[in-house]
Sequence to fold (680 residues):
Amino acid sequence: MALPPRATRIADVAALAGVSTATVSRTLANPEVVSPQMREKVMAAVRQTSYTRNIVAANLRSRQTMLVLVVVPDIANPFFAEVLRGIDKTLSGSGYGIIIGNLANSAAKEAHFVDLVFSGQVDGVLLLCGHVPQGKGRQMDVANVPLVAVCEFIPHVTLPQVGIDNQAAAQRVAQYLVGLGHKRFAYISGPASNILDKQRDAGFGNGLKAAGIRKPHLRFEGDFTFQSGALAATEFLTLKQRPTAIFAANDEMAIGFLKTVQKSGVKVPRDVSVVGFDDIEYSEYCEPTLTTVHQPRSALGAAAARLLLDCMQGHEEIAKPRSQYLEAPMVERLSSAVIG
Amino acid sequence: MALPPRATRIADVAALAGVSTATVSRTLANPEVVSPQMREKVMAAVRQTSYTRNIVAANLRSRQTMLVLVVVPDIANPFFAEVLRGIDKTLSGSGYGIIIGNLANSAAKEAHFVDLVFSGQVDGVLLLCGHVPQGKGRQMDVANVPLVAVCEFIPHVTLPQVGIDNQAAAQRVAQYLVGLGHKRFAYISGPASNILDKQRDAGFGNGLKAAGIRKPHLRFEGDFTFQSGALAATEFLTLKQRPTAIFAANDEMAIGFLKTVQKSGVKVPRDVSVVGFDDIEYSEYCEPTLTTVHQPRSALGAAAARLLLDCMQGHEEIAKPRSQYLEAPMVERLSSAVIG
DNA sequence: TTTACCCATGTAATCGATTTCACAGCTAAA
DNA sequence: TTTAGCTGTGAAATCGATTACATGGGTAAA
Fold:
């Protein structure tokens, strides 16, 4: 096969400057170890030939690619996009680049990402996908490359993880709603077996109990989609004694619920208070604006990236960076109020 | 510096199978050129050692990285995220990976991306950023790597580009509004010197003229933000003879306008029709839902990626893939109606 | 003055795969 | 039977940088 044309090599620069390739390499990587006049001579030759180091060749020898794989379920999801921004800011600050691993429900792609890791194409991996990727009979975490999980917790695994304390946040929502004087509650759940949902569910239940609510709260089954929130609303509307406070496991469902009950003349927050989770952009714009738990998405990404940097630059002493939990404050907007 | 530990090499596999490294390499890359029994022997050794090819080494020799750089102004922008999805689908189908080049207004990062290209780290580049990246005194397009521009047109440049025909789309909006019986129009512009704005502006003006509207339309200066749409609205409200049809250069501004006039009791579409551009997700959810021009974002990404693949796999005959324009239909929703 | 060491530089091995070239064995045509 | 051609395999060059090791000149300590 025809190979692409070659560019100027380090040898060209060395020849022009009348020095060895070793000296050129050192001038570029550790300028302080070469004498000033030599440095000047080499830099002149570099400029003259407009030389750029071949990173691939450098990678081969130094066994580093300065690339991090970020595995996401779906790049088009704005939630992850914001996390990505935080990741990028931190990683690019340390000279690392990002390879996007978009799962898109494809086992083939997942296997390919596992290969990337085993074949030394990346120096580290950030997992936003809630599981350890696998393919061709092996798991990503048995490769000799550091992994850090973010946002979507991965159970039964010893990786460092970064996220928020979902349970505590949900508990605070419960306290808040009880504080507003509510007595009858409902929870709109996420998909069965989703770990985030389990934590938020548990936190909400505990919070109610802790605040002295005896009566068990209602439960609508959802799956994190707008539609499932709407479905919960139609169920809600059939009830003769309706709950006055709704906590949805995410904002999409909260908004789906809210829009649907409004169509039947139910007023929010007069008749029912609604609280979501995530603080997606839309929650600031819908009518009424949505009270919700704010996830510091960019900060989550940045924290995870920093953790990964520690692992990659792994001074042995700090070889075990531990998991981190970030603050997730509730932001009060107009969809919740004291009981009328 | 301590190097990471080494993995199994092709030489290990060759030794185990009792063949040369050349044969192993061929078995993996072109199985059809080795004899079946040899193939079996090698594959057994591969399985036994759980060998994975070192991609970096392969890249060095074959001068291909199977990586494409995608330069975006801001990864957190949902518009680009959707384009990215189309890109990813096409590129990953052909075995290419994606490196994200998030500009984030940083000249240093831009320069770094230029370096990536010149240093042979990527095989091709997709530009969603409306300009040819440059840094350290050189432009990306003088490197020997194919570039394709998407969405944001780059003027005065011979690259293949993929986008929609903004002018034609805006012209259709004008026709549509005139068809509804409107007589007084206003345009909310994008930032000065933005090429997309210029095209939409021109198209709208031409469309009105072509439909027989003599009176020049009003013009509110905006910058693509929600706030600038709101600002246009306050200006609009002070007018004694208000336009009845508003075309905003993007959806954010259209919605900013819409929300703001509603607060003053102006009814949409009874008192004024509003049309946006882009068809962002929110335009389907706002009240009333927004009539707008739909950009086939994912398809745009996919088309650009296909074009780039052609360039990269560059059979000389088709070495000049030309620019492409995709259909951008107007979608009629509830923010526009016949004049009351 | 001698010994020891350091510093700046050069020489050459090395990273791990791909690929060119040479060659042996075999088949088909002359 | 000889010649040409084809096929499958191995030996070794190669991609382009980094870096271990060697070396020579200089300075400081003994």
About this structure: Chain B touches chain A through 56 residues (CB under 8 Å).
